[in-house]
Design brief:
Three copies of one chain form a homotrimer. By secondary structure, chain A is an all-alpha fold. The first copy, chain A, is built from four helices and no strands. The longest helix of chain A is centred in the first third of the chain and has 31 residues. Chain A is elongated and about 60 Å long.
């Protein structure tokens, strides 16, 4: 018997949480694109200063650091530090057959904290608020990893 | 029945695409190493200025930003923003049993666009060309994630 | 029959190695937090200069680059360039049914080299030492990916 089947509600929970987190992660790349276009700034590569449809009015200062665009990159970096680990950890967590309620609590809470973290970061809320949601998400991944190790040791 | 078996052609497609993308991702790290050695520049850490086999002729300016080396790091960052999400998304996409033809179209197109993106980025082609291949790859991951959610909601 | 089951010793090896690597990755985020608090420096966001429990004595220079804090971020970046690829590659490696001994050699060696790499990087050992452990880990991921492709081609 495999745990990784659409007949297993724990795996379905994993698939839903993962799909939402993947959309969040990819969407962050598009927020960076949107902010680059809207502010006409925050470019990274010398060749991006070639005039063309993507840059009607090239200026050297477009390569300077723009906090508006860089904020979206910092958000994405924070996502990359957390979401891929969640995606891998959730899979092995399901494999050790935890109670469904814990799968749902851990995974949907992780999804919620990362979505709130995004809002908090995008709107520049204070450090303490941002850190709170980062912390909850991080501790959930850590808890799932420790759960896997303990389940296998038994 | 599990979808994650070498008897399932969709999973075999996933494994081939994933293995190629993993080689691409690891290879990008080696392009950075190659460029650091070739240009004798682009180091990141103060201790890298210690004289030794890896640095025959240490100079403080080796810690300055080198566009030649940094380009490879930017390419790797772009990979990290896309490939791990693809690896996780492809797995749950296979799990919801999509038609094999869509697995092949999505996955091999993603692989092709990321390989072309690498060539385009390495050779400094214009922004529009690079953005086109980024966009196709990103939309494929987004499409697979939405497909998973719709398949599970039905 | 599925390979992804707690009855399969190769998959159990994968789960143990993955859980340790996920804890390593998440722990690196906490090393950054620890170093930010300890040095009262290395902040990234303008809003982090608001006075509050997380910042008792805000000063603009807290946004300047701090090598002590940035080192932990560079370590995490290096992890992100290697660990997610390992997590995805290990899964498809197990799926092609390699001999258990190779699963154990590859995966536990990868875990060991990444843990040693962390120590070497945190204590600022010379480039050659750090590069050695990076290289072993990277070659293991590359070897697993090539093994998967060769196994599927046969």
């Amino acid at each position: 018997m495999t745990e990784f089947s659409v007949q297993n509600p724990a795996f379905v929970t994993y698939m839903i949480a993962s799909a939402i987190m993947i959309l969040k992660l990819m969407g962050q790349g598009w927020m960076t694109v949107f902010r680059m276009i809207k502010s006409d700034a925050g470019l990274l590569n010398p060749e991006d200063l070639l005039a063309g449809p993507a840059n009607r009015n090239p200026r050297p200062e477009q390569l300077a650091r723009s906090d508006y665009v860089d904020r979206s990159r910092r958000m994405q970096r924070n996502d990359l530090e957390n979401i891929p680990a969640f995606l891998a950890c959730g899979l092995i967590f399901v494999a050790v057959k935890p109670p469904l309620i814990w799968v749902e609590i851990f995974m949907y809470t992780f999804v919620a904290t990362r979505l709130i973290h995004t809002l908090v970061y995008a709107t520049g809320q204070r450090h303490e608020v941002r850190a709170t949601f980062y912390t909850i998400g991080s501790l959930i991944v850590i808890a799932m990893a420790i759960w896997v190790l303990l389940a296998l040791l038994r």
